[in-house]
Amino acid sequence: xTLTKTLLGAAAALALTSGxxxxxxxxxxxxxxxxxxxxxxxxxxxxxxxxxxxxxSYRDVELQSDAQREQYLRNFAEKxxxxxxxxxxxxxxxxxxxxxxxxxxKFAIIDMVVDAPNVRSVVFNEQExxxxxxxxxxxxxxxxxxxxxxxxxxxLISKFACxxxxxxxxxxxxxxVIVNMTGTTPAAWNDPVKGGELTRAQKSAGSEVxxxxxxxxxxxxxxxxADEGMLSIGVDSNQNYLQPGSVLTSMVKRVDNAVYDAFTQxxxxxxxxxxxxxxxxxxxxxxxxxxxxxxxxxxxAAIDEATAKIISGEVVVHDYMSDESCPAF
Amino acid sequence: MxxxxxxxxxxxxxxxxxxxxxxCLAGLFSERAGVVDIGLEGKLLAAAFLAGAAxxxxxxxxxxxxxGVAGSLAFSMIHGLASITFKGDQLxxxxxxxxxxxxxxxxxxxxxxxxGGRTPSLPTDARFGEWNLPFSDALANxxxxxxxxxELISGHTxxxxxxxxxVPLSWWVLYRTRFxxxxxxxxxxxxxxxxxxxxxxxxxxxxxxxxxxxxxxxxTYLASLAxxxxxxxxxxxxxxxxxxxxxxxxxxxxxxxxxxxxxxLEAIGNRYQSITMGDFTIPVQFMQALPYILTVIIxxxxxxxxxxxxxxxxxxxxxx
Lengths: 329, 320
Description:
Strand order of the largest sheet of chain A: 2-1-3-4-5-11
Strand content of chain B: under 5%
CATH architecture of the largest domain in chain A: 3-Layer(aba) Sandwich
Structural class of chain B: mainly alpha
Order of helices and strands of chain B: HHHHEHHEHHHHHHEEH
Oligomer: heterodimer
Shape of chain B: globular
CATH topology of chain B: ABC transporter involved in vitamin B12 uptake, BtuC
Order of helices and strands of chain A: HEHEHEHEEHEHEHEHEEHEEHH
Number of domains of chain A: 2
Number of domains of chain B: 1
CATH architecture of chain B: Orthogonal Bundle
Structural class of chain A: alpha/beta
Low-confidence stretches of chain B: none
Largest sheet of chain A: 6 strands, parallel
Radius of gyration of chain B: 20 Å
Number of helices of chain A: 11
Strand content of chain A: 15-25%
CATH superfamily of the largest domain in chain A: Response regulator
Strand order of the largest sheet of chain B: 1-2
Largest sheet of chain B: 2 strands, antiparallel
Number of strands of chain B: 4
CATH topology of the largest domain in chain A: Rossmann fold
Distance between the termini of chain B: 63 Å
């Protein structure tokens, strides 16, 4: 990896010094990589959509290690890129220092709140989308047990699990939601074998539908669910096509919209906290030709009803991160 | 906890322990010959990647297995070249291989498949199928024996049975053949072997070849189980295998029990997020850390003594 790091570093340095036009936007992807079929890829798609529609160009970079966060951020800011979008909550610490040093540059961070005058903090109401996923699972399951596989054990992932459990229990109050986390280190995002094994264990405990919010580990969950004849629910990007006929739906987080919006607003990026929820198409459940056969009319009706209630404020889905606890567990 | 649950946990144990066992035996051969192999993790990853890539292109997991073994062998030979031929530091060479594998798999994977370092998902017929042993369906409904035979003993992949067969085979090779005697001697006292007119370099390379093949099988197993390669998918299994090797005191049968124990701990951790015993709750994180804690306890000499091969870690220099 040392070799690749050097090569990538050299390539990045070359790319940066080649003199980009001023005030192009830039995006920094997190360690998952921009083709993770999930979070980062959604961000990449948003940037690509912007480039295609406006004909503009943007700069992007994939991190190779945690240490590079501040380095790339500072580098991009010095080269005059504006705005700079960061895909991932892990950039918060680096951004706090860099944002203060470049008051004229606008930054956007996804999934985290950073309190600075030139930062736009995009947060998603994942619990709302997960709530809908829970309703779908409740209608798809014949019995009363469904399950959840999380990646690394952090509050953000529990937020998914909590919304899912709440949605499920809104339909089946006596039902059971088995919640498993893959691990406590970043390796938990890329362990499909363990994800598959967790899925099998959940199946033997009676689960019929498994919701995976676990990055690369989730691919193993979806695969095993297909092997074992279970239904699964994907996350972040629309993953319905990965195992057609087995993926019930995907809880999509429109990270692409967040990036697209930030790029479109350009240097006049609106700062402050930007909440993306059901009401502004920030989250939702994916419906397409790959899962059409799995969605029953009652399920669809229940999802639509819950969507309307959440938007109108009649139903408030609990946010795990607000008090680190979940009434539905 | 009912009988069927126990069988299911044991079944999961076998699946989780298979790659550990193969990797652990790989480490056993190489360390018994006096070459410390911290690069197991890298070999696993390289093998998983090449197996996933070859299987997705050709549609045959057996060709994937060949490719995985070839990749792992290539890494083994680089390790041998650096640490045997050029007498470099074995630890540094191993660590370098781990980094090389982590980086290369993603970069090469991206340029081949344009999927961000992943390989395409393997269809069912490009993965190892489950082998049903004779009478497994007929016996499935017999009480007690039925589930045991049908769920636990039958219905694993070919590689699992190969891994289990590799244990007695390793024992036989190491303790009942001339090659095995020499291999163990080379790890204890290479100059004595050299004095007897046997090539230390050749023996150590032979050990690395065996290690490469075993690691290649383990990597292919991972790629087949997860239906493709995902970056860093070995997720530390090479290191756990190394811990198991110490736990097993560098002996084949102990390696089987150590890897099965580690597999069992993981399977229990997967099945139960936390175990409540009376007023006391064991969190799942403790279960996940237990293999390492046990290894440290063994290393510290509280339970028995783990004495590594004496010449391990030092390159052999013919004359001083």
